[in-house]
Design goal:
The complex is a heterodimer. In chain A, 36% of the residues lie in helices and 18% in strands. Chain A contains 13 helices and 11 strands. In chain A, helix 1 packs across helix 2 and helix 6 packs across helix 10. The radius of gyration of chain A is 20 Å and the shape is globular. By secondary structure, chain B is mainly beta. In chain B, strands 5-6-7-9-8 form a 5-stranded mixed β-barrel. In chain B, strands 1, 2, 3 and 4 form a 4-stranded antiparallel beta sheet that branches. The two termini of chain B are 26 Å apart. The chains are: A alpha/beta, B mainly beta. The interface between A and B is large, with 48 and 49 residues. Zinc ion binds next to loops of chain B.
């Protein structure tokens, strides 16, 4: 396919609470990705930074910040902000530059130093900001929404607390094998059940933490990769960055209400499902072609939702798919082989890039103890606040 | 803090949304700029009261103190509150709100009927900030 770009390099800074600045994490990840690609920083024609937002503006405007820290060398620069989808939008921007012939090699970097506890909006009285409003008027934190989705699944599909816990059990077992993960301890269902309730019915171990971390990719044209001896590189075949369709009838962060369906009949397909469909259409393949998936498990219950939205199973059958072991290593479609956010935590601008790093390592056969056999096609799925779809399809 | 989102007292307390004169789309929180229906050329947006009763779409609670800008007294022990997402049939919209104090997740189920009542978000020496709350019907607390 002519639309492919090559993944020449992938790199991460280990995730955790390191107490340092995000630039340090991003630079470490970038250097690792460049070393993996066998390229010097001076050979990079363009850098795309996924922004972190602290204090009400995109802190330090990431593209230029990373370029300066790596040493000014005149590269084209781009910075993108799309909340949790920032990394996917950074990949999309890099890919577009390569396919348009504006750059042959692009470095994509995302990193963050997250605050402890709940994410919160920037300060000041800002009632024109929907994110500020949901905290001020309702005290609705991110776990509030995860709790609503979980309770809804229990009522509509019959999911149980044990199902949710088993997602954590599965992901923690993979995270234990990942040297970049923050949490490297296997967790049992009884530990999940014994952890404190945060937002009914979800407990501390059902919900991802906030973390520091960084991830980077070196992308290039397929021709450039071949010229550098990479005859069969991992390739990015699709990047989905879609918005919802009006009326969006699933209550979504950070909204206080859904769109009304009084005037316009809602589409049969939800926003999350449309993110995956757009990626499949662009890639020219479907869920049956996948070897693995990295999905955005902000909560254990949300991972089950993604199974359905990715078309891995029918609506309401997510828990059944999990119980069958289909999404575990050795199953039909392993999900979150990296350990997922359950093992990494959230470093917002880095996580969609980190998902592509995992696909890259899996598709190359370099994932070590967590390697999935015969991995050929992988998808990432993510969703950024304020209506940013995010999915990447990579193939080998 | 949020102007024009609700009005009235007691049994007349309602949430206020807006409705487009061209396509009849309804908006809450109120949309006063322009109609967000992509198939609509744009009409006038008129204020309308929303249904006072609806059905529970889902619910949860907040066992930990939320961060600022939510206002709580750090001197007092944290009292969890319940949040309910409520589906209003006529408007075909889901509206999130806190439950009235004392209602816990054990009192709720998806599909149960709730009604809108006024409540106090917080108060200081000078101001009482009113808000909306959802209360299971048949409860008079
Ligand atoms: Zn209209």
């Amino acid at each position: 396919m002519t639309g492919d770009v090559a993944v020449l390099g992938a790199g991460m800074h280990p995730w955790g609470k390191w107490g340092r600045g995000f630039v340090e994490y991003g630079v470490a990840a970038a250097r690792a990705a460049l070393a993996d690609a066998g390229l010097g920083w001076r050979e990079v024609g363009s850098i795309v930074g996924a922004d972190t937002v602290r204090g009400g503006y995109p802190g330090h405007v990431a593209g230029a910040t990373f370029a300066k820290a790596l040493g000014w060398q005149g590269a084209r620069v781009t910075s993108v902000y799309a909340a949790c989808a920032s990394g996917a939008q950074a990949v999309a921007a890099a890919r577009a530059q390569i396919l348009a012939g504006l750059a042959e090699v692009v470095l994509v970097v995302g990193a963050d130093a997250a605050p402890k506890g709940f994410f919160r909006p920037a300060g000041g009285d800002r009632p024109d900001d929907p994110d500020w409003l949901r905290f001020r008027v309702l005290g609705a934190t991110n776990p509030t929404y995860f709790g609503l989705y979980a309770r809804r699944r229990m009522a509509v599909h019959g999911d149980t607390l044990e199902d949710f816990a088993q997602v954590k059990v599965k992901n923690s077992a993979m995270g234990a094998l990942n040297p970049y993960a923050r949490y490297r301890k296997r967790v049992g269902a009884e530990e999940v059940a014994a952890s404190a309730v945060v937002a009914d019915p979800l407990r501390l171990l059902d919900i991802c933490a906030t973390s520091d971390g960084g991830a980077a990719l070196v992308l290039s044209s397929v021709e450039f990769a071949r010229g550098r001896g990479a005859a069969e590189p991992v390739r990015i075949r699709a990047v989905s960055t879609v918005t919802p369709t009006y009326p969006n009838t699933v209550l979504d962060l950070p909204d206080i209400a859904t769109d009304s369906a009084a005037a316009v009949e809602p589409a049969a397909e939800t926003f999350r499902a449309s993110i995956a469909r757009a990626a499949y259409e662009e890639a020219g393949l479907g869920p049956e072609d996948l070897s693995l998936a990295e999905v955005y498990d902000l909560s254990t219950a949300l991972e089950l939702q993604w199974y359905e939205d990715l078309g891995l199973c029918g609506e309401g059958e997510g828990a059944k798919l999990l119980r069958e072991g289909a999404t575990a290593p050795g199953g039909r479609i392993p999900v979150n082989t990296s350990g997922g956010l359950a093992s990494f935590g959230e470093a917002v601008p880095a996580q969609a890039i980190a998902q592509v790093c995992e696909l890259t390592w899996q598709l190359r056969g370099e994932a070590g103890d967590r390697q999935i056999e015969h991995a050929r096609v992988g998808i990432t799925a993510n969703q950024g606040l304020f209506g940013h779809g995010s999915a990447v399809v990579a193939v080998r | 803090m949020v102007t024009g989102w609700f009005a009235g007292d007691g049994d007349d307390f309602t949430l206020l949304g807006t409705r487009c004169s061209a396509c009849a789309a309804v908006f809450f929180p109120r949309e006063d700029g322009c109609c967000r229906n992509p198939g609509c050329a744009g009409g006038d947006l008129a204020e309308i009261p929303l249904s006072r009763r609806g059905r529970v779409w889902s619910y949860t609670d907040s066992r930990y103190r939320p961060p600022s800008p939510y206002v709580t007294d750090p001197e007092l022990p944290w009292e969890p509150y319940t949040l309910i997402a409520v589906e209003l049939a006529a408007e075909r919209i889901v509206v999130l709100g806190q439950a009235v104090p004392g209602v816990t997740v054990a009192d709720l189920s998806v599909g149960a009927e709730v009604e809108l009542v006024p409540g106090v978000l917080h108060e200081d020496g000078e101001t009482v900030w009113t808000t909306w709350r959802w209360r299971p019907t048949g409860v008079t607390a």
